[in-house]
Design brief:
Blueprint lengths: L4 E2 L11 E2 L2 H4 L2 H9 L9 E2 L1 E2 L9 E4 L2 E4 L11 H14 L1 H4 L31 H10 L24 H19 L11 H11 L1 H4 L38 H10 L14 H13 L2 H8 L17 H14 L1 H4 L10 H4 L24 H10 L16 H11 L13 E6 L19 E4 L1 E2 L14 E8 L3 E9 L13 E2 L31 E7 L20 E7 L4 E7 L5 E3 L8 E7 L2 E9 L16 E9 L11 E2 L3 E5 L1
Parallel strand pairs: 7-10, 7-21, 12-17
Antiparallel strand pairs: 1-3, 2-4, 5-6, 8-10, 9-20, 10-11, 11-18, 13-14, 13-19, 14-15, 15-16, 17-18, 19-20, 19-21
Helix pairs in contact: 3-6, 5-6, 7-10, 9-10, 12-16, 15-16
């Protein structure tokens, strides 16, 4: 019998997961009947697992061909200031994107994996266990857990072969020491803010990313995009002051308190108000601009944000015209970062990053409320390509028109990730093109993605961060509709399918001429690496108690990959037994069909295959009522993503009506 969802909310963390008891298994059939009748909310159910305890730790383990006894294993290196500093650097380079700067499991990728990364601040975390236990967990990762914990979705990698034993012990020392400090209820409070205290708080919490002297060059800068702020320049993105002007003390305090959405900069709200005010004093000391500002007797000019007027359709229409003329060159016609000018601006190496994807308001740095968007438009974002909309050119009414239109480019809130992908059963032939109207009546499923950072050839600054999936079957075939945002299309597709790119916006009337623009002939060649997407299934679905490692399985647990690529433009089936062990299946085992299109920064794809095939050894076989694990991989070829450089998801569950 497979493990089944438990009818209650359970915290989505490796530190709070338990195994469904055997008594629950008898309820599987009742659950599946209720599920098929839509009596249960899919999002209210998760697979249940026990978290491994100290008693689950093996007596010994093999590391690089050497047997290490875990019983009474003591760290071979002592805890010292240098050890802790080295451990902090190792943590930032390898762990921070998942476990977070504050070790609370809320890193940049924390919402992209299920179960979410461990929160080291919880009482039942590794702090309650000996360091030998943590050494085992770090070295062997989620894939090295005992058999009884399968199926196991943990994205915790095995660091054996990536980090040395000494490096692992250093990061363990750091995690235990830092976690104890962060979870401690006794903190030393200063009576009032001071520059001296600000320096101490900065050195302990901020220098690892922003650098010892505030130049944005700490070890954490290498895993951050955008780069950590260079405080020597005296600018921050989110201010109440005009573009290019230094921020107020309140601006700095709010930046520290709120953090920055979608970046590695966390909220430091847990620090005392005195510590945060001390930090403001210290940050101002890092740049000469603040002292010059005071010496010249200047005062801050605050950008006033008026109350928004009532929304009207006339305002929306004006906002659309203004957006196309003034914003689409970078943000694109549908706001998906695919503007014609963008490709000349973006340079990840220099931190010239992509314009905000306006279809994902949950990633807006300041926020997605009307006044917040107005303020961003009025102030611009210092040290970026996002300019301010000057009141000398744009009246407040025009800015509100723009705000109204921008809010129509996205859902009102971030879509929830379903625990089950429900494959609806229909009669008749399945739709085989993305623009078939049948798909409009099918539920969308939002699945988050994160960069593959486990293997050495990895992607840290991914552009693609989610995929939307719909699925149908008719008892004979199964079809998947997928769309994902990618601001650049493989040029070769323009020869083979429908491609619509955001055009260069029209010039203002006073700059237009009657002479037609010279049309340059474009030689269409494929980009060096194709854009690709793969749906992943276990090659064999047994009783559900054993599933492959989510990174392409292994030799004992192979996976079946349905991979579409932009060149050659086709979908093929592969068998994988590891992240680098992927083999295309023989021609007689190729049963996929696919159709793709691209419009305004978004790929649309349909892949279809029979539910069952003659080659059951390598092809996943689907049955109604069966729960099937499913995962996703995407490669953005224009960003150099190929092989293990890709974005990935954990396993999710799919069920056919």
């Amino acid at each position: 019998m497979p493990f089944i969802p438990v009818p209650q909310k359970v915290k989505n963390s490796e530190d709070s997961i338990y195994m469904a008891s055997k008594t629950i298994r008898a309820k599987t059939y009742i659950f599946l009947i209720a599920l098929s009748l839509n009596l249960l909310s899919h999002t209210s159910y998760i697979f249940a697992f026990d978290r491994p305890s100290e008693s689950d730790m093996p007596l010994s383990m093999e590391i690089n061909g050497k047997s290490i006894s875990l019983q009474n294993l003591a760290p071979p290196i002592t805890e010292s200031d240098k050890t802790l500093n080295d451990g902090a650097n190792i943590y930032i380079k390898n762990c921070v994107l998942c476990h977070g700067d504050l070790l609370d499991g809320k890193g940049l990728y924390s919402e992209s994996f299920y179960p979410s990364p461990a929160n080291f601040l919880l009482p039942q975390s590794i702090l309650s266990k000996p360091k030998s236990y943590t050494f085992w967990r770090v070295m062997k990762g989620g894939s090295g857990l005992p058999k009884k914990y399968e199926p196991w979705n943990s994205a915790m990698p095995a660091w054996e072969g990536v980090l040395t034993e000494n490096q692992v012990w250093k990061v363990i020392h750091f995690i235990y020491e830092k976690s104890k400090k962060l979870s401690s209820t006794t903190t030393q409070h200063v009576s009032e803010p001071s520059l001296e205290n600000g320096g101490k708080v900065y050195s302990e919490n901020c220098s690892v990313c922003h650098g010892e002297k505030g130049a944005g060059d700490g070890p954490g800068a290498k895993v951050s995009s955008p780069f950590p702020r260079n405080f020597i320049k005296g600018h921050i993105k989110l201010r109440s002051t005009p573009f290019g002007k230094i921020p107020t003390d309140k601006d700095l305090f709010e930046a520290i308190t709120n953090g920055s959405k979608g970046t590695t900069m966390p909220s430091w709200e847990h620090l005392s108000e005195e510590d945060r005010l001390s930090l403001v004093l210290y940050l101002k000391s890092l740049s000469k601009k603040f002292a010059k500002f005071i010496k010249k007797g200047k005062t801050h000019k605050i950008v006033v944000i008026p109350d928004p007027p009532k929304f009207t359709l006339a305002s929306l229409e004006r906002g659309e015209k203004l957006f196309i003329q003034s914003c689409s060159a970078c943000h694109g016609v549908r706001g998906r970062s695919d503007g014609a000018s963008t490709k000349k601006i973006v340079n990840i190496a220099t931190d010239s990053i992509w314009p905000r994807n306006l279809s994902k308001p949950w990633k807006f740095r300041r926020g997605d409320k009307r006044k917040q968007i107005f303020q961003t438009l009025r102030t611009g974002l210092s040290l970026t390509a996002m300019p301010r909309f000057s009141p000398r050119i744009f009246k407040d009414e025009q800015i509100w028109d723009l705000v109204n239109y921008v809010q129509t480019l996205s859902p009102s809130q971030k879509p929830e990730t379903p625990k089950f992908l429900n494959v609806k059963k229909v009669d008749g032939p399945l739709p085989d093109t993305p623009n078939d109207p049948t798909w409009k009546a099918v539920d969308s499923n939002f699945f988050p993605l994160a960069g593959q950072i486990i293997k050495s050839e990895k992607i840290i600054y991914p552009i693609v961060d989610n995929v939307v999936v719909k699925a149908l079957h008719n008892g004979k075939d199964i079809a998947f509709y997928l769309h994902w945002d990618d601001p650049t299309v493989d040029p070769i597709l323009k020869k083979m399918t429908t491609v619509e790119e955001s055009p260069v916006p029209p010039l203002p009337a006073h700059l237009q001429t009657d002479e037609p623009e010279e049309q340059l002939s474009e030689e269409l060649k494929p980009q060096e690496f194709p854009d690709s997407i793969a749906i992943q299934f276990p090659s064999s679905i047994n009783d559900g108690n054993e599933r492959p490692y989510f990174l392409n399985g292994d030799s004992e647990h192979p996976v079946n990959l349905w991979k579409w690529s932009s060149h050659p433009m086709k979908a093929l089936e592969f068998t994988a037994t590891g992240i680098k062990k992927i083999n295309v299946q023989k021609n007689s085992s190729q049963n996929l069909t696919s159709k793709v299109s691209y419009k305004y920064g978004r790929y649309f794809l349909v892949m279809k295959r029979p539910l069952t095939t003659p080659d059951a050894k390598v092809d996943t076989q689907f049955r109604s009522g069966q729960t099937t694990p499913i995962a996703f991989n995407i490669w953005n070829g224009s960003a150099g993503e190929t092989g293990s450089k890709k974005v990935i998801s954990s396993w999710f569950n799919m069920i056919l009506e």
